[in-house]
Specification:
Number of helices of chain C: 7
Radius of gyration of chain C: 19 Å
Number of helices of chain A: 6
Radius of gyration of chain A: 17 Å
Helix content of chain C: 25-40%
CATH class of chain A: Alpha Beta
Number of strands of chain A: 7
Strand content of chain C: 15-25%
Shape of chain A: globular
Oligomer: heterotrimer
CATH superfamily of chain A: NADH:ubiquinone oxidoreductase-like, 20kDa subunit
Order of helices and strands of chain A: EHHEEEHEHHEEH
Strand order of the largest sheet of chain A: 2-1-3-5-7
Strand order of the largest sheet of chain C: 2-1-5-3-4
Bound molecules: flavin mononucleotide, iron/sulfur cluster, FE2/S2 (inorganic) cluster
Distance between the termini of chain A: 35 Å
CATH topology of chain A: Rossmann fold
Strand content of chain A: 15-25%
CATH class of the largest domain in chain C: Alpha Beta
Chains: A alpha/beta, B alpha/beta, C alpha+beta
Number of domains of chain C: 2
Helix content of chain A: 25-40%
Structural class of chain A: alpha/beta
Structural class of chain C: alpha+beta
Largest interface: B-C, 33 and 34 residues
Amino acid sequence: MSREKRINFATVWLSGCSGCHMSFLDQDELLIDLSQKINLVYSPLTDVKVFPDDVDVTIVEGAIGNVEQMELLKKVRERTKILIAIGDCAITGNVPAMRNIINNSPEEVLKRAYVETADKNPIIPTEVPKLLRRVLPLNEVIKVDYYIPGCPPPASLINYVLTEVLAGRTPVMEGKAKYG
Amino acid sequence: MKPDDILRVAEREAEKQRAYKSRINVCCSSGCLPFGALQVLKAFESAIKEYGLEGECKVSRTGCIGTCSVGPVALIEPGGFLYQNITPENAKEIVKRHIISGEPVKELLYANEAFFKKQYRLVLRNAGRIDPLRIEEYIMVGGYSALIKCLTKMTPKEVIDEVIASGLRGRGGAGFPTGQKWNFVAREKATPKYVIANLDEGDPGVFANRTLAEADPHAIIEGMTIAAYAVGAEKGYIYVRAEYPLAVQTLREALKQAKSMNLVGENILETQFNFDIELRMGAGAFVAGEETGILASIEGRRATPRPRPPYPATSGLWGKPTLIQNVETLANVPLIILNGGNWFAKIGTPKCTGTKCFSLTGKVNNPGLIEVPMGITLREIVFEIGGGVPAGRKFKAVLVGGPSGGCLPESALDLPIDYESLTKAGAIMGSGGIVVIDDESCMVDTAWFFTDFCVDESCGKCVPCRVGLLKMRNILERIMRGEGRLEDLDLLQELGEYVRDVSLCGLGQTAPNPILTTLRYFRDEYIAHIVDKKCPAGKCFRLEAEI
Amino acid sequence: MSGTGVVKLKIDGVEVTANEGETILSAAKRAGIKIPALCYLDGLSSYGGCRLCIVEVKGSPRLFPACTTPVSNGMEVTTDSPKLRKYRKMTIELLLSEKPHICAICIANGNCELQDLAREFGVDHLRVEREWKSQKIDLSHSFLVLDNNRCILCTRCLRVCDEIEGVHALDIKMRGKDSQIIIDIDDDWGSSISCTSCRKCARVCPVGAIYVRDEPISRTKNKDIAQFILLRRRR
Ligand SMILES: Cc1cc2nc3c(=O)[nH]c(=O)nc-3n(C[C@H](O)[C@H](O)[C@H](O)COP(=O)(O)O)c2cc1C
Ligand code: SF4
Ligand code: SF4
Ligand code: FES
């Protein structure tokens, strides 16, 4: 196995709590197996700044909430062969998308978060990237190849899907995929 | 009253009418009223009075003749002269020249003979010809003689056999064989049994049933009473939407008259047969016209459909056997009894006998209410009866079957109209709505319009219709905003088939038709929206982009 | 159809004997064949709204809800096929997309029949966009909560309240996509004059739409309650 060519593997963190990444790390000793098969070319766990070309598999955590994330995601999709959405935020919008309920308007959201509910200094920040009108799950913007639901998905499920995908098989999700 | 008394009423009325040399039938139906029909009626009456013609010319308030777009209209007999766009002023002119001098006023005559040429009036036989508020006129033209024939000469089984022989099928949409349904109800042992006449007519742009009730209410009442005799029912309801005040008023008056002549009620015509009819008003939900929705509504609950079986024939109102029939279906019955099932079966096509009323609307020169033999082609309806699309425009599609009908293209115009071929083409007979669409319309927008109607009218009981249709509408909106993706077309198709197959009642089962047929026949328009971000008809992309 | 006769039918190829008037769902259950169902609940009248229990009947192009369709002699029923799976999966997807179901913050997380069905059918994402409209949350009762944002309109609560508790405190207002559960004539729950606070609605709600405040939902929920009371009553 280890003599085989390693694949280029990336992980991306958008609007999410990083719990999915934690769960990814929770694969514990199975990570050692995985690390034999991959080159980690981009991830919040590394210091690479630019998403590289020619990535074989990327897992994406989090929903798309702002313009910056939208641009990154489109780039990721262009440069990745297999893109896996990991966690409920990436798949349904989940908690980050709850702001969609507020009148579908980013201005209202910012006002609610930074002014109405502020204890001190009620100021809308200017340095954050422009918010989208609505927080979107990945598949409303790009094509997603596989999904690993859960908030966060259990490490065992992440491992199962990755194992199957790396082996060129389609994971069977019946009976396994649990939201929440 | 006995049967003979009824015959005497007919004779007396005929005698009375013979005294008049001519007769002016002024349409005072819902179509002509907004154009001032009542003022026209008054103008005719006062002109006749002014010229002292009361004894010679009868001015009569009648129902609709079908040419609603040129109202107010009046039909002058003898000769069948139809006048259009009458005003109180030219009414007097008509009296002066036509009635007094005997010279029809050419410039005011309805010139469009093609409108009537291919029509065949069975159901609308009396529409525009008799005064719906006078039972004597209905009786004079042979009304209630079919009921008399049933009560005096036929057993219930013979009545059913005649209806079976006629091949009559339900005009409310599904086309179920009427005689067979009567058999189902007749053989049930539980009592009491009920008959419901369905006059809910919730489809927008459809007005055939309303017109029938306003023009010839007794045809419905007689058909209903015959049906009750055949299946052994003793109580009937006419379920009519409350937004049809004139139809309600006409039916109420007609029922009063029929009861006073002992044609409805206890010991009808001094036989053992009892049948009472009550009017019930619906609050105007489209889904309340669905048969199990009606049941719930009449029982006093929310008009929400329920799964069938059990069918109303076995378990209907308060769990009792119930016959539900569209009013147009019922209006055919007296003719079948009088002329025989075999006579009726020769009209139309072998599998689809008789005629059908259609409300012809949209971009067509002669809109109105028409009645045509089954088997006629859509081309004949649109281009001959309807006179084609207005000059300068091009025909694009025709929506057949109301809001959940199908949009059919030019290539489908030669289809003979019957339940099966319409269904095969992706449309339905529905309640007989035909909307002609020209090249100014966008088919995606058209599909959206009708889907949106069904989204609003969904009762919400079942998931496919409540949520599936909503999602389909939302996908269309996305496409119309220029944010569509090609995969959306497959998703629409999949959702459409799902909603059609899984929905509980006919609303959901047919609501995907506008989308499914436009996907089938006008796919290029969808692709233009998605790929070229262009609306060929220039209708869409009015909404600002979302992101 | 007096319900006294016995009929024979085949469900998924298995010979099954059933009572006349019995539904396909109940006959299948006795034969050990599980048909997915959501709005149906033992002990309550059948509703036929969720459409999960649809089955194929030989000789008909239509699909029939097993929870309302009576058995008949010689009937051949198929309860599972690629088409039925596809349609059931779609139903679950649509239900999840109709409201902002956010399992991560829901009291019913881990005790939810909709969530379980999504898992069973492998609904790992939604192909249709979600609605993000917010609907009324009624917090006025001293311990019962109604959150319409999670309601799937199965009407179990209505039926248990009407048929078992005999009160009919709950009903639906509006129609179609705007349908919402209401208390009495759209009153606040806390001021309801008919609600007996028996909490049966919370026991049978398949999701997290009606629950008891500050009580673990695993303790609140009891799918057998209606049937249990019904049997007790008959004795
Ligand atoms: C959503 C919906 C609306 C309907 N509305 C009407 C209606 O307004 N009038 C009618 O006669 N039938 C209507 N139907 C059809 C009835 O359910 C029923 O089939 C019909 O009244 C039976 O009479 P028929 O056999 O004479 O057609 C409707 C069906 C559906 C599904
Ligand atoms: S198909 Fe639509 S209208 Fe009919 S029961 Fe279902 S939700 Fe109600
Ligand atoms: S509140 Fe619960 S039980 Fe009641 S209809 Fe909604 S989901 Fe069903
Ligand atoms: S369980 Fe049968 S339709 Fe819901």
